[in-house]
């Protein structure tokens, strides 16, 4: 009974803290005389304004007599295209249109700029995570290798990347390496995030390997396993179980760090928010929405990692 009262008291404290935070935010908005307007936010998630159909190449326009089909025949070429699902045509039969000219208007729902930015953030984070795990695993194994060259190179990689800011690395990869190798903005962003995150994953893996008793490796070798086999089947599975919470934290950091690629020509979630604010001058509503979307991403990842951790604990 006493324990139930204690738990109820602390839940009450938790509720009071949340109420205090909400009241504090509201008080600050009143203090700066901010006029909240959330009505425009949904259109940045799912837009009902329809979509414009643009010409994919220079072409002549042909519209059927019933006005339901618009066809394009490439000017000086062999390509063609046709459209049937549109509400209003802005071109007429016989017109010569050029690439990206407006052809027609297509009604219906379409993703808003925030959802487009969210998809870019998801795609960028997922691809970067795959390569970061690869870089981190190789560098982590190099950190504990007997080969002095591998150990020293891995150490230099980790110290160099962890000792410089991510934003500086993004600029170097995008403006220098990307220019020389002609990398797209997306590829440059993946490289910068993967290399940066890989250095931290390497240290996490190294600490996990070193936390496994040496007797595990010795016992595996005595059973006839090679070093690589013992590391793959015995040491690494145990190390990954122990380092899963730390890896999850690094994965979450990767999602948040992806917001820095907005300095490049990529419309991720953060850049989408900035573009909206530049047009509607509603910073509070937009940034709170962006923050909640990031929170949904990281919260989902945390939940999945906790489920995986519990499952591995029972194996």
Helix-strand layout with pairing:
Layout: H1 2-31, H2 42-45, E1 46-47, E2 51-54, E3 59-63, E4 70-74, E5 80-83, E6 88-89, E7 96-97, E8 102-106, E9 110-111, H3 113-143, H4 148-162, H5 166-181, H6 185-211, H7 214-222, H8 227-257, H9 269-280, H10 283-313
Antiparallel strand pairs: 1-9, 2-8, 3-4, 3-7, 4-5, 6-8
Q: Any key phrases for this structure?
A:
10 helices; single chain; OB fold (Dihydrolipoamide Acetyltransferase, E2P); MetI-like fold; 3-stranded antiparallel β-sheet; 315 residues; 4-stranded antiparallel β-sheet; 10% strand; alpha+beta
The name of the CATH topology of the largest domain is MetI-like fold
Write down the domain tally.
Answer: 2
CATH class of the largest domain: Mainly Alpha
User: Rounded to an integer, what's the Rg over CA atoms?
Assistant: 27 Å
- The residue ranges in which pLDDT falls below 50 over 5 or more consecutive positions are none
Give the SSE order as H and E letters: HHEEEEEEEEEHHHHHHHH
Helix content: 55-70%
Name given to the CATH architecture of the largest domain:
Orthogonal Bundle
Give the integer mean of the pLDDT values. Answer: 87
Annotated CATH homologous superfamily of the largest domain: MetI-like
User: Largest beta sheet, briefly?
Assistant: 4 strands, antiparallel
The SS-based structural class is alpha+beta
What is the number of E strands?
Answer: 9
Overall 3D geometry? extended
- Helix tally equals 10
Strand content: 5-15%
Distance between the termini: 36 Å
* Order of adjacent strands in the largest pleated sheet: 5-4-3-7
């Amino acid at each position: 009974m006493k324990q139930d009262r204690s738990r109820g008291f602390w839940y009450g404290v938790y509720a009071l803290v949340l109420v205090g935070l909400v009241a504090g935010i509201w008080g600050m908005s009143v203090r700066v005389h901010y006029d909240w307007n959330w009505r425009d936010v949904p259109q940045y998630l799912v837009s009902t304004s329809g979509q414009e159909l643009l010409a994919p190449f220079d072409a002549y326009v042909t519209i059927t007599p019933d006005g339901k089909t618009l066809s394009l025949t490439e000017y000086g070429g062999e390509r063609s295209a046709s459209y049937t699902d549109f509400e209003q045509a802005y071109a007429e039969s016989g017109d010569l249109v050029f690439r990206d000219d407006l052809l027609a208007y297509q009604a219906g729902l379409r993703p808003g700029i925030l959802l487009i930015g969210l998809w870019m953030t998801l795609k960028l984070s997922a691809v970067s995570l795959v390569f970061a795990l690869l870089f981190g695993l190789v560098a982590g194994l190099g950190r504990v290798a007997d080969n002095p060259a591998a150990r020293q190179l891995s150490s230099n990689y980790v110290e160099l990347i962890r000792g410089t800011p991510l934003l500086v690395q993004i600029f170097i990869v995008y403006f220098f390496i990307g220019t020389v190798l002609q990398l797209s903005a997306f590829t440059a962003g993946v490289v910068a995030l993967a290399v940066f995150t890989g250095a931290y994953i390497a240290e996490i893996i190294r600490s996990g390997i070193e936390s496994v008793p040496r007797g595990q490796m010795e016992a595996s070798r005595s059973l006839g396993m090679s070093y690589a086999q013992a590391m793959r089947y015995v040491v690494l599975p145990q190390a990954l179980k122990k380092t899963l919470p730390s890896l999850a934290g690094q994965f979450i950091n990767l999602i948040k760090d992806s917001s820095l690629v907005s300095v490049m020509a990529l419309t991720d979630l953060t850049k989408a928010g900035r573009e909206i604010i530049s047009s509607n001058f509603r910073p509070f509503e937009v940034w709170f929405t962006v923050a909640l979307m990031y929170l949904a991403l990281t919260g989902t990842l945390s939940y999945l990692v906790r489920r995986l951790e519990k499952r591995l604990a029972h194996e």
